[in-house]
Design brief:
about 230 residues; alpha+beta; Alpha-Beta Plaits; 4-stranded antiparallel sheet; 7 helices
Length: about 230
């Protein structure tokens, strides 16, 4: 039996290695373009790994999100999206149909959270250090891309590199990549060490970067942070 369209979409086939808070922020970043989000539910229990619920204020928003993002590569895995079988608690409360569920006692399960090995942690730290070193080298070679200069320069002529400002503290490379890789010609995101509020995004040519700029300028990554996009100074 088909599930009727409703405010909540159910997503599975998510990457189980992503931490819960990062997962929720990334889901908000890519789904908030479809309408107001009331809540995102993502649990890391063994039963609910790789799954999440996104609750929209309007059913039309949920429908557009389902149609547009079906199969979207999210952390290297295509999302599988369907309408939720039942109303979420937040929607049920708005409708006045909410009923309190009995709480079940639950013991902590050590297997709920994967434990990283020391080797994996060392590898991740080494990779992060190398990336930061590359970013420092890039900034030193091209002073015009220094954040303090780029932020005060007026609109630059169109080119293949975009300069992003007013980003929230929780912004990361994967989050921005998922926003921009839907546009043709996307090459990479470059973060600036010790600055979470700015970043650079490179495309293959200025026409492709201009299309992304037109579509995403003013996009709200969080309710309080509307991303500002300009062409970088070359």
């Amino acid at each position: 039996m088909d599930i009727r369209p409703n405010h909540t979409i159910y997503i599975n086939n998510l990457n189980e290695k992503i931490k819960k808070e990062e997962l929720k922020k990334s889901l908000y970043a890519i789904f908030s373009q479809f309408g107001q989000i009331l809540d995102i539910v993502a649990l890391k229990t063994l039963k609910m790994r790789g799954q999440a619920f996104v609750i929209f204020k309007e059913i039309a928003s949920a429908t557009n999100a389902l149609r547009s993002m079906q199969g979207f590569p999210f952390y290297e895995k295509p999302m599988k999206i369907a309408y939720s079988k039942t109303d979420s608690d937040v929607i049920a409360k708005l409708k006045g149909t909410f009923q309190e569920r009995p709480k079940k006692a639950r013991r902590p399960n050590p297997s709920d959270e994967p434990v990283e090995s020391k080797k994996a942690k060392r590898k991740a730290a080494k990779e992060q250090a190398r990336n930061m070193q590359q970013q420092n080298t890039l900034t030193n070679r091209n002073p015009s891309m220094h954040p303090t200069m780029g932020a005060t320069v007026p609109e630059q002529p169109p080119n293949q590199i975009l300069f992003l400002t007013n980003l929230p503290d929780e912004t990361n490379e994967m989050m921005l990549s998922m926003l921009f890789n839907q546009f043709p010609g996307f090459k990479e995101v470059r973060l600036v060490p010790n600055r979470h509020d700015i970043a650079f995004v490179e495309f293959e040519n200025e026409h492709q970067s201009a299309e992304a700029k037109l579509s995403l300028n003013g996009f709200k990554i969080t309710p309080t942070h509307a991303m500002k996009i300009s062409f970088a100074k070359k």
